[in-house]
Design goal:
Largest sheet: 10 strands, mixed
Shape: elongated
Strand content: 15-25%
Oligomer: single chain
Number of helices: 13
Strand order of the largest sheet: 2-1-5-4-3-11-12-10-9-7
Order of helices and strands: HEEHHHEEEHHEHEEHEEHHHEEHH
Mean pLDDT: 81
Length: 360
């Protein structure tokens, strides 16, 4: 068995560890250089529990190993699991994050003028009762929200890269909020022919998190799944409480991600160009999901099989503030933020849905 793994992984520059029956069966020289005393270590001494307990044939996760935040690609074989360990994509973009901020600022100024001008035109269009002009107005609004999503992603990613992404944590009912979100999304994307489902293990789940950021995370995942699931397929959002954590899962039975591309899933600019046959935005959706999860102290796993589908699982601590007023600080989410939804899902919502009734 060891000779077999040596022939497969012995010359890899990537660190490789093979786990079998709860023990380290094999490690290559790169793993030995990375992890001191690896010959005496058990899998649980190397990898976090959530990574070891995640049951999938192939997925990508993260782990802090030897003091470094590393990407771990896991592949299940017939009688063992192979853990391939790589460093995250290096930050070789120089001062790009500051450029992103400048671009976002300038674009947002122009977008504000565009939206204001369009709003002034709408009453005149509505008074003429002209379906063609109304359709043109919807197309303008659709383009506005699509560009707004891109600029928001540039800003958010720049903030995260500079460690300036701030969280506005409040307590709110994640189960109720997510159920309402799915109901609204289902209505807006009904013409795609994809079924949307929601599952929760309890009617109410109060969490302490940045609601707007978590909503953005969910909407990004839903958008990716909807974009890559053909008519007749399905997308499911599940929300469960598991001990001291809450777990969000978005799964689909769409086209899936090729194995050679899966390891690039969190890499900025690159992964989404391969994940979708219809590239939208600038490829920052999945990296931003990853960033929001990490800012909340959580972990994210991505598993996918070509032609079968993709599942993203986000696990975040149910962190509560020390103040006893925790239960008194509730977010009013009864009036769902339609502007955010129209922005984040602009890649999958048709132009016809960007009519004035949704904007209002």
């Amino acid at each position: 068995m060891t000779d077999r793994f040596t022939s497969l992984y012995g010359n890899h520059s990537q660190a490789v560890i093979v786990e079998k029956n709860g023990k380290v069966e094999y490690f290559n020289d790169a793993a030995a250089r990375l992890i001191p005393n690896i010959n005496e270590a058990a899998p649980e001494d190397i990898f976090p529990a959530e990574l070891l307990s995640y049951n999938a044939d192939r997925f990508i996760g993260e782990a802090k190993i030897a003091g470094k935040n590393l990407v771990v690609n896991v592949t299940k074989l017939s009688d063992c699991r192979v853990f391939g360990i790589t460093a995250p994509e290096p930050d070789d973009q120089g001062d790009w994050t500051n450029i992103f901020g400048t671009i976002s600022y300038e674009l947002n100024n122009s977008l504000s003028v565009l939206k204001m001008s369009s709003g002034l035109l709408l009453p005149h269009i509505e008074n003429q009762d002209n379906s063609k002009l109304s359709r043109y107005a919807s197309m303008i609004y659709h383009s506005y929200y699509n560009i707004q999503r891109i600029t928001n992603n540039l800003t958010d990613f720049g903030d995260y890269t500079r460690n300036s992404m701030l969280l506005n944590r409040t307590s709110y009912d994640l189960a109720v909020s997510s159920r309402e979100m799915i109901d609204t999304v289902r209505h807006l994307v009904s013409d795609r022919g994809v079924e949307l489902y929601f599952k929760a293990n309890q009617d109410s789940l109060v969490v302490y998190a940045d609601k707007r950021r978590i909503d953005k995370l969910i909407l990004n995942l839903l958008s990716n799944s909807l974009l890559n699931t053909p008519a007749g397929g399905s997308v499911a959002l599940s929300v469960i409480s598991a001990g001291d954590r809450f777990i969000l899962t978005v799964s689909d039975n769409g086209q899936g991600i090729p194995p050679e591309i899966l390891q690039m899933a969190w890499s900025r600019y690159r992964a989404e160009r391969f994940v979708s046959e219809q590239p939208v935005g600038v490829g920052l959706g999945l990296p931003i999901v990853h960033a929001i999860t990490k800012q909340h102290g959580g972990s994210v796993m991505l598993e996918s099989r070509l032609g079968i589908g993709t599942t993203v699982t986000v696990s975040i601590p149910l962190t509560k503030p020390e103040t006893p007023a925790f239960n008194d600080i509730f977010v009013d989410y009864a009036d769902y933020d339609m502007q955010q939804l129209l922005t984040e899902l602009s890649g999958v919502i048709s132009s016809e849905k960007y009519s004035q009734k949704y904007m209002d």
